[in-house]
Amino acid sequence: MPRINAAAALQISMLLFALPAQYFISQWYGTDSAERIQRTERLIAASWSISTRSYLSPDAWADRLKLWLSKTRTCLYVELLILHFRNWYYGENKTKSGDNEAKPHSYFAESTHVHSPKPEYIKFRVGQVIIHRRFGYSGVIVGWDVKANTPEEQLQLRYPPVKQDLKDTPHYRILINKANGFGKSSAYVREEEITVITGLEVYHPDMETYFSGYDGSKYIMQPWLKKLYPHD
């Protein structure tokens, strides 16, 4: 049943009080009883006509029901959009069936293909806490590539001809510890630039997206991330 809003309630109240009010007015100002009866009859007819058009008409209630349903559908649509966004953001749909191949342009260790088998020369694992040897910031590994996977223009800038061999070494995506105040939220680094430490927790707004907890030596991967790195 559609809700009666404040405006509708006010109209009903006015209609309910209009009949007795006008009746008493007609009692005082009418010329005779016959005229008062006619005025009363006209008032009743007018009030009934307004009521049937506004509240006793199936068409009127149908219009109100349509409006209520349209508002309900809008709310449900918004809720579905929010749910879809949360599923996408937290990675719950990242490893659906048929999604085991790397997506195009998935750079910086963000590919959604399953990293299996894991090459023996990949030293570090997702969930391990690291320290950058040069810049000193700490962070946690959230992905790795067997070699640099960046857009070609960035690859050329980062690795000039004299350092071409470095692009073929393992690279890791790092969430940088906010406690360091480094000014960046993530980094993509070579294996030689980092070293693993234990007993240090990392603070970053995206930690719960990737990990469910910390066991003192490494972070525990969320199920969707564990599917991508089953050997880490």
Automatic annotation (TrEMBL):
Under Pfam families, the record lists: YccV-like
Q: Look up the signal peptide feature and give its range.
A: 1-20
- For this UniProt record, give its keywords in alphabetical order, as a comma-separated list: Signal
Q: Which GO terms describe its molecular function?
A: DNA binding
Q: Which InterPro entries match?
A: Clp_protease_adapter_ClpF, Hemimethylated_DNA-bd_dom, Hemimethylated_DNA-bd_sf
Q: Where is the Hemimethylated DNA-binding domain?
A: 121-222
Know the name of this protein? FBX21 protein
Organism, by scientific name, is Thryothorus ludovicianus
